């Protein structure tokens, strides 16, 4: 399978010669573990503090420039609105307009009119994007060209403000990582030096740059969750993240790091990607088992192979042991090159490790905000995908007073009939008052008030039946409150086609549209749903799976107590005792998931 070429600018050669001071804050916890075994020299704390203050002052200047630009745009908008009456007068009141907004998603069902109780519909846009902090309080770097990736600074404007404050320390670490990535990324002198070491067949001691190469596995939701996990691991272990983007994943996301690329160059010397699996001899677990390496503290870096492979795909509903223990992390830290393949959100496993505890506390004071912040930092749909998202939102969702996202997924290993799932959706919505109640008589509506409430229901599903039946229910019957229900489903592809780029573009667009809703109802176990509500910072209602040998779930749904995704297959280990243990009992902020009884997730 071909590997896309990295698109790094010609300025990289000049940039690689620059000396970039990596602050003390960039030191990874893996290096902290190393210090426990070997002392380090003194640190010029005064110089480090001065550098930090200078960097913070520069960032404040950039944020001030953005705020000034926002105020200037707002002033222009206000001036335009004030001039409207004069324009109407001058044009004799004959100004009329019409627009037809086309969407790239789905069939005519996208344009179905709002249905429900009679009366006029409020056509004023109440939830369109407004001028806000485009940098997300400093989460994003201001140095990108906005037109090259319009979603980067505009996507969040369609959502409510984040419920979680951003740690200044996380912002600082992200800027430091960006400098590190630019210094060590593809097409730099340091990267070429690291590739030379990789080709030699042996590891060497104390290289300036270390790398983790991410390989995809399973569907788009799984890939986004595990990519965010791998980036956090890169932050904790002071590695450069490089991604192997297969053909079906190309043209989905913009580059997240300024001045460099996260794409693995096409001439990367390891091309046998299909040989990376659970039983691969290069995997860390198999090397330990076959005594190719050992995880004792005395193992020297230059005695190790050229790279190590971590296989973190769920197998028999658990991740491999011998990865998330202190001794193993000390050994893994000695490798300059790491290849990681996963389909799991393994962030909760990182929070179980004492050596990372303090760093993670500083990065994420609110534990359940990890994916919310990292997802908004890393994932920015490309302009073609953003065009799909923004056109659909403006055409169908922007005018709604309230938006409810309904994500429905039936898994082959847990089949449910259409009627059983439909009944479960209705039972959940009645209990939680999510969908408007059906009335027995037409409510009186003042046709001149123009204040009828519009509730948009956005359905994402591979199947059209749920949309058709819900639409028919509100078409035939009035709502008890008189509000209007507008039902939308962007696409219905019947089958999942992860291998198709067009399918993945639609899936990504629908994840983002769901994340713009005020509330979300999602299917249990769905990584698609995890991504959507995680980006939004919402606690969803989860449609539970029926128990063993049961036809229907009781209760129909539960409200998640955390915004975080679930790790379906956690490592069950006690590193010190070398025996299995329930990992949910180890720390108070890692507990079992509502939808996966043995899974793990972070709670605040």
TrEMBL record:
<keyword id="KW-0808">Transferase</keyword>
<dbReference type="GO" id="GO:0042546">
    <property type="term" value="P:cell wall biogenesis"/>
</dbReference>
<keyword id="KW-0328">Glycosyltransferase</keyword>
<feature type="region of interest" description="Disordered">
    <location>
        <begin position="1"/>
        <end position="56"/>
    </location>
</feature>
<dbReference type="InterPro" id="IPR004938">
    <property type="entry name" value="XG_FTase"/>
</dbReference>
<comment type="similarity">
    <text>Belongs to the glycosyltransferase 37 family.</text>
</comment>
<keyword id="KW-0333">Golgi apparatus</keyword>
<dbReference type="GO" id="GO:0071555">
    <property type="term" value="P:cell wall organization"/>
</dbReference>
<keyword id="KW-0472">Membrane</keyword>
<keyword id="KW-0325">Glycoprotein</keyword>
<feature type="transmembrane region" description="Helical">
    <location>
        <begin position="74"/>
        <end position="92"/>
    </location>
</feature>
<keyword id="KW-1133">Transmembrane helix</keyword>
<keyword id="KW-0961">Cell wall biogenesis/degradation</keyword>
<dbReference type="GO" id="GO:0032580">
    <property type="term" value="C:Golgi cisterna membrane"/>
</dbReference>
<comment type="function">
    <text>May be involved in cell wall biosynthesis.</text>
</comment>
<dbReference type="GO" id="GO:0009969">
    <property type="term" value="P:xyloglucan biosynthetic process"/>
</dbReference>
<keyword id="KW-0812">Transmembrane</keyword>
<dbReference type="GO" id="GO:0008107">
    <property type="term" value="F:galactoside 2-alpha-L-fucosyltransferase activity"/>
</dbReference>
<protein>
    <recommendedName>
        <fullName>Fucosyltransferase</fullName>
        <ecNumber>2.4.1.-</ecNumber>
    </recommendedName>
</protein>
<dbReference type="Pfam" id="PF03254">
    <property type="entry name" value="XG_FTase"/>
</dbReference>
């Amino acid at each position: 399978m071909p590997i896309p070429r990295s698109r790094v600018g010609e300025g990289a050669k000049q940039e690689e010669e620059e000396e970039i001071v990596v602050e003390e804050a960039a030191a990874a916890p893996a290096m902290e573990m190393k210090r426990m075994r070997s002392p380090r020299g003194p640190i010029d704390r005064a110089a480090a503090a001065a550098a930090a203050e200078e960097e913070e002052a520069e960032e404040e200047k950039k944020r001030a420039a953005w705020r000034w630009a926002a105020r200037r745009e707002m002033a222009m908008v206000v001036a335009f609105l004030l001039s409207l009456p004069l324009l109407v007068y001058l044009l004799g009141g004959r100004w009329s307009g019409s627009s037809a907004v086309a969407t790239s998603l789905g069939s005519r069902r996208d344009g179905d009119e709002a249905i429900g109780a009679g009366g006029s519909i409020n056509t004023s846009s109440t939830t369109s994007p407004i001028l806000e902090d485009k940098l997300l309080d400093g989460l994003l770097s201001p140095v990108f060209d906005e037109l090259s990736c319009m979603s980067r600074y505009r996507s969040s404007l369609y959502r409510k403000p984040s419920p979680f404050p951003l740690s200044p320390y996380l912002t600082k670490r992200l800027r430091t990582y960006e400098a590190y990535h630019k210094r060590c990324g593809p097409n730099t002198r340091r990267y070429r030096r690291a590739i030379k070491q990789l080709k030699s067949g042996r590891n060497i001691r104390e290289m300036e740059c270390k790398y983790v190469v991410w390989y995809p596995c399973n569907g788009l939701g799984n890939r986004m969750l595990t990519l965010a996990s791998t980036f956090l691991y890169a932050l904790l272990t002071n590695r450069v993240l490089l991604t192997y983007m297969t053909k079906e994943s190309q043209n989905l996301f913009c580059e997240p790091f300024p001045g460099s690329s996260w794409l693995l160059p096409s001439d990367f010397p390891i091309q046998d990607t299909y040989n990376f699996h659970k039983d691969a001899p290069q995997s860390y677990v198999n090397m330990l088992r076959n005594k190719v390496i050992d995880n004792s503290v005395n193992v020297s870096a230059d005695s190790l192979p050229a790279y190590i492979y971590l296989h973190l795909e769920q197998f028999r509903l658990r991740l491999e042991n011998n990865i998330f223990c202190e001794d193993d992390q000390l050994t893994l830290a000695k490798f300059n090159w790491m290849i990681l393949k996963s389909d799991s959100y393994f962030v909760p496993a990182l929070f179980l490790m004492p050596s990372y505890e303090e760093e993670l506390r500083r990065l994420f004071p609110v534990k359940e905000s990890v994916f919310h912040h990292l997802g908004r930092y890393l994932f920015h749909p490309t302009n073609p995908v953003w065009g799909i998202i923004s056109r659909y939102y403006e055409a169908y969702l922007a005018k709604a007073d309230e938006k409810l996202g309904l994500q429905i997924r039936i898994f082959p290993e847990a089949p449910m009939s259409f009627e059983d799932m439909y009944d479960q959706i209705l039972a959940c919505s009645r209990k939680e008052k999510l969908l408007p109640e059906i009335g027995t008589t037409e409510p009186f509506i003042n046709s001149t008030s123009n204040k009828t409430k519009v509730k948009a229901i956005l359905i994402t599903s591979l199947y059209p039946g749920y949309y058709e039946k819900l639409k028919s229910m509100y078409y035939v019957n009035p709502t008890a409150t008189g509000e209007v229900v507008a039902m939308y489903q962007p696409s219905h592809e019947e089958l999942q086609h992860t291998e198709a780029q067009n399918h993945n573009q639609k899936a990504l667009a629908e994840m983002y549209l769901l994340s713009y809703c005020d509330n979300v109802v999602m299917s249990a176990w769905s990584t698609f749903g995890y991504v959507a509500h995680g980006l939004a910072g919402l606690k969803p209602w989860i449609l539970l799976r029926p128990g063993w040998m049961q036809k229907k779930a009781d209760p129909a749904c539960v409200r998640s107590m955390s915004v975080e995704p679930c790790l379906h297959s956690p490592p069950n280990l006690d590193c010190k005792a070398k025996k299995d243990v329930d990992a949910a009992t180890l720390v108070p902020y890692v507990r079992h998931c509502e939808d996966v009884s043995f899974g793990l997730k972070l709670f605040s």
